[in-house]
Design goal:
It is built from 31 helices and 37 strands. It is an alpha/beta fold. The chain folds into five domains: 2-61, 2-Layer Sandwich (Phosphorylase Kinase, domain 1); 87-141 and 341-524, Rossmann fold (3-Layer(aba) Sandwich), CATH 3.40.50.740; 142-333, Dimethylsulfoxide Reductase, domain 2 (3-Layer(aba) Sandwich), CATH 3.40.228; 587-855, Barwin-like endoglucanases; 872-926, BFD-like [2Fe-2S]-binding domain (Arc Repressor Mutant, subunit A, Orthogonal Bundle), CATH 1.10.10.1100. A seven-stranded mixed β-sheet has the order 5-4-18-17-16-6-7, with helices on both faces. The longest helix is centred in the N-terminal third of the chain and has 19 residues, at 81-99. The relative contact order is 0.12. Residues 1-57 form the 4Fe-4S Mo/W bis-MGD-type domain. One of its GO terms (cellular component) is oxidoreductase complex.
Length: 929
């Protein structure tokens, strides 16, 4: 047994992990108690990292050898690394020779390590001579970058996580922190428990789990954040709650802003935002008069056509009240991805250069050219993410290199993205997982190493640099991302007749040392850091040469990195949504995270247990909106925007407001599919979202689209559910996934029996669920193929019923254990009305012998009541809602005492704590206070 300290590859909290490995296999993971980001805690996703790295998952999902397609639409064939990289270098050299450097583009990822990011940036801007290198962080953090630079002068979050312990007021806006940054949320919960006088304001269109901790919830209308922030400043000015001394000494531009916000009266703001005037006054008072106010914000502000304005308007509030530059105070942007910060540091965006330099600045371009030893860095602005795929769709961009990201799931306006991937002459995908939708479009697939196999660094939201360490060897023929880039770059140098090489690197550290030198004298100066120092403990920047430690908080002296040393107020006007709802599209659709899933689920989607909390895709609607449209729970609906349409079940939820709807961002074509009436494949939630973007940050408005929701008349339905051997489950799901396009609606997800996490290795069972609907019964061979994949074909223990005239079919495979009979797999086709009880028999592994022929009788009701499998609340210990409700029936005391009783009896909420907000909500709703 070996233990290796590393960093979690999920969100920007940057938790330290300790990886346990045996030989070449990762067998366990736990939080690093010495890491200052998490002090040993991990969320549901981090706690299951070792399961995503199991031998079975690796064998069935990983890209393990270079693969090449001779022709689009064909299966790729295996090639060796020399052949793969020679082909790539020849193809890129030819495209560059024929169409120029700007005919190629690189779309990379906030999940790469800083060293990977650096060489990609140098490859594009230093060797090829194009600024067409952008990243999925453009979809995540570019508005935060622009907002910080516009007001404070540099892209430097001024706060640290410890500030939650010093805050008198925490203002959470545009962030479901409980789901998106759960370990930081645990720290907020603890700080609130220690200091009950702390005020927490939560501002979001949805009443998410984060609201459970709030003293004040502001349910603003989508897109009205700037209106709200200006309205709060209007009240602060009227009531004399601004800090005039701080404004005079440390800021500029306040008079223009003051004139602007004069029009944002409480009456006007209340009406536009949907918030009472009393709540506006309360929020303004708490924010301005607290001893220290900390703002936490994320994609609700960033993913907007007004993203820069939203960020800047919030920072205005901190500058106007002097709530910055001291413990517990400041505007703290929470990073979405594990190394979006590191990517920003090395200039891994189309408008940036190394060490927070601006591409538009001739002096900055000259500095980088000198550091790299090249004649110049191109001044032509690079294509940002949306622009890059639009250019490829228009035929202007000929070659695309995509690394560690899945734009065929995550980019908005999927019709354009897929047209781009189809039209590009060359698509290279550098990826660890072979199962992402983007891999289907690749001419060349290059296998990359991933978490547990890599060496390098990442930077979290609080500017803390942590080491990522290799615990096990890379599987198969996978290579490190930086190695792939360096090898390709050297081959391209030969073809472009460039010498000497710009890429002399032999280790990640050699890359990092060059990156370190580019930061000398900059705001993020890390010239005092070394790998050796980072081996001892993670460190925050800046950490210049001669320093003994990094800086926890910035701007404590009131001096900002602007020409006059003063922060700048931004007089940004409120601009409505790019696509406001209207009569034809009367719903505001928002997207967001699920608690137990990550991005496109290429990693978390391999684990059935992480689907326990939310097992299938759905669109959430307010119960009144469903009633007005005569929709029942689970009814299929068409959700349609101006760009596309998808079909999925409707689900009633009091989290969303009237005329609003919510779909989780994770549901892409890998899990949710179908085909339109015109034969076009349905591409998940981002078939709906708009590519309209903020003019300042170029970040698209993924958080809002105007949609219509209409009932889908698909009378023929099918449900297939099966327990499968571990070595077959993922392979079966991949084959089932390919069949989703045969139906107007289909979903395919894994599931598990969800044993306690500390017992999972010995008792976990995995299965797959396939759900579909159509206008009429499909040909028999399609249903037979589904039976084959679900293990329902050709076994003596399989029971069958079929009525071709009615298009009905029922197949059940049983397992006999002594006197008991249990269902192992089932398929209901044409009539799924018995789903509730027969699926529960399978999922709960209950004896089924008493049901006899009813297992095959269409529409049959169970003679003995079968309790429907309850919603799972605690993923760590597999605790479901019915068990919690039953315990609470006999539980007295205060809410805190009831929570403690639940934790003691059922263990829920005692491991990662991610389910604690939901437990509190259940306590409040089920047990009178």
């Amino acid at each position: 047994m070996k233990e290796t300290k590393s960093t979690c590859p999920y969100c920007g909290v940057g938790c330290g992990v300790i990886i346990r490995s045996e030989g070449e296999q990762i067998v366990g993971v736990r939080g690093d108690p010495e890491h200052p980001a998490n002090f040993g805690r991990l969320c549901t996703k981090g706690s299951t990292l070792h399961l995503t790295a199991s031998a079975e998952v690796t064998r069935q999902t990983r890209l393990l050898q270079p693969m090449r397609r001779e022709h689009r639409g064909e299966a790729p064939r295996r090639v060796d690394w020399d052949g793969a990289l020679d082909f790539a270098a020849d193809a890129f050299a030819q495209v560059i020779a024929e169409h120029g450097p700007d005919s190629v583009g690189f779309y990379i990822s906030g999940q790469l390590l800083t060293e990977d990011y650096y060489v990609f940036n140098k490859l594009a801007k230093g060797l090829i001579g194009t600024n067409n290198v952008d990243t999925n962080s453009r979809l995540c953090m570019s508005s935060a970058v622009a907002g910080y630079k516009k007001t404070l002068g540099a892209d430097a979050p001024p706060n640290c996580y410890d500030d939650v312990n010093h805050a008198g007021c925490i203002f959470i806006v545009g962030s479901n922190t409980a789901f998106a940054h759960p370990i930081l949320f645990r720290r907020i919960e603890e700080a609130k428990a220690r200091n009950p006088q702390m005020k927490i304001i939560f501002c979001d269109p949805r009443r998410t789990d984060t609201a459970e901790l709030a003293d004040l919830y502001l349910p603003l209308q989508p897109g009205t954040d700037v209106m709200l922030f200006h309205g709060l400043l209007h009240i602060m000015l009227w009531e004399g709650w601004t800090n005039t001394d701080y404004i005079a000494a440390h800021t500029s531009g306040f008079d223009a802003l003051k004139s602007l916000v004069r029009e944002y009266t409480p009456e006007k703001v209340s009406q536009a935002c949907g918030i009472s005037k009393d709540d506006l006054f309360t929020a303004a008072k708490w924010f301005a008069t607290s001893p220290a106010t900390l703002s936490l914000y994320c994609q609700g502000l960033n993913q907007s056509s007004s993203g820069t304005a939203k960020n800047a308007a919030l920072i205005n509030l901190h500058l106007a009240t002097g709530q910055i530059g001291r413990a517990g105070a400041g505007p703290f942007s929470l990073t979405g991805q594990p190394n979006a910060m590191g990517g920003r540091e090395v200039g891994g965006l189309a408008n940036l250069l190394s060490a927070h330099r601006d591409l538009a600045n001739p002096g900055h371009r000259a500095e980088v050219a000198a550091l790299w030893g090249v004649p110049s860095v191109p001044e032509q602005p690079g294509l940002t993410a949306v622009e890059m795929f639009q250019a490829a769709a228009d035929g202007q961009l000929k070659a695309l290199w995509i690394a560690c990201t899945n734009p065929a799931q995550s980019m908005p306006d999927q019709a354009t993205v897929r047209r781009a991937l189809e039209r590009a002459e060359l698509v290279v995908v550098q990826e660890a997982f072979a199962t992402t939708a983007t891999c289907d479009y690749a001419d060349l697939l290059l296998p990359a190493s991933t978490w547990g196999e890599k060496e390098g660094t990442v930077t979290n939201s609080e500017r803390r640099i942590s080491r990522v360490r290799q615990a096990v060897p890379r599987p198969g023929g996978a290579r490190h991302d930086w190695e792939i880039v360096v090898d390709f770059a050297r081959r391209l140098e030969t073809r472009l007749r460039r010498a000497p090489t710009l890429f002399p690197y032999t280790t990640p550290e050699s890359i990092w040392l060059e990156h370190r030198e580019t930061t000398r004298g900059r705001d993020l100066d890390i010239t005092g850091l070394s790998y050796a120092l980072l081996e001892q403990a993670p460190q925050q920047w800046p950490f210049p040469e001669g320093a003994s430690s990094g800086k926890a908080r910035l701007y404590e002296d009131g001096v900002f990195p602007t020409p006059d040393g003063k922060a700048r107020f931004a007089d940004v006007a409120y601009v409505p949504l790019a696509e406001p709802r209207e009569s034809r599209y009367p719903f505001s659709l928002t997207t967001g995270r699920l608690r137990d899933q990550w991005h496109g689920m290429s990693r978390t989607g391999t684990l059935g247990r992480l689907f326990g909390h939310v097992p299938e895709p759905a669109v959430q609607m307010h119960p009144q909106d469903m009633a007005r449209r005569s929709l029942q729970e689970g009814d299929l609906v068409h959700v349609t925007s101006k760009r596309g349409s998808i079909v999925l079940p409707a689900q009633a939820s009091n989290e969303v407001g009237l005329s609003q709807a919510f779909i989780a961002m994770h549901w892409g074509a890998e899990f949710l599919g179908g085909v339109s009436s015109t034969g076009e494949p349905l591409a998940g939630v981002n078939a709906l979202t708009t590519s309209a973007y903020c003019p300042g940050s170029k970040q698209p408005e993924l958080k809002h689209a105007a949609v219509k929701i209409l009932k889908a008349e698909l009378p023929w339905t099918l449900l297939g559910v099966a327990w499968l051997p571990a070595q077959d489950a993922q392979a079966a799901r991949e084959q089932l996934k390919s069949m989703m396009a045969l139906f107007p609606f289909a979903a395919c997800v894994p599931f598990s029996n969800n044993p306690p996490l500390d017992q999972a290795a010995n008792s976990e069972r995995n299965g797959v669920l396939f759900r579909a609907a159509a206008y009429e019964a499909p040909p028999d061979e399609i249903v037979q193929q589904l039976e084959q994949l679900l293990g329902l074909a050709g076994t003596v223990d399989t029971l069958r019923y079929a009525d071709r005239r009615k298009g009905q079919r029922r197949t059940v495979r049983v397992r006999r254990e002594g006197a008991d009979t249990r269902i192992e797999a089932l398929l209901l086709a044409g009539d799924t009305s018995a789903e509730a009880w027969i699926k529960s028999l399978l999922l709960q592994e209950l004896p089924a012998q008493a049901y006899g022929r009813l297992l095959l009788a269409p529409g049959a009701k169970a003679p003995v009541a079968v309790q429907k499998k309850g919603k799972q609340v605690c993923s760590c210990f597999g605790v479901e809602a019915p068990a919690i409700e039953q315990h609470l029936e006999g539980c007295g005391g205060s809410p805190d005492e009831r929570l403690a009783s639940l934790q003691k009896a059922l263990r829920c909420g005692t491991n990662c704590g991610s389910c604690v907000p939901e437990l509190k909500r259940m306590i409040r709703s089920l047990v009178p206070a």
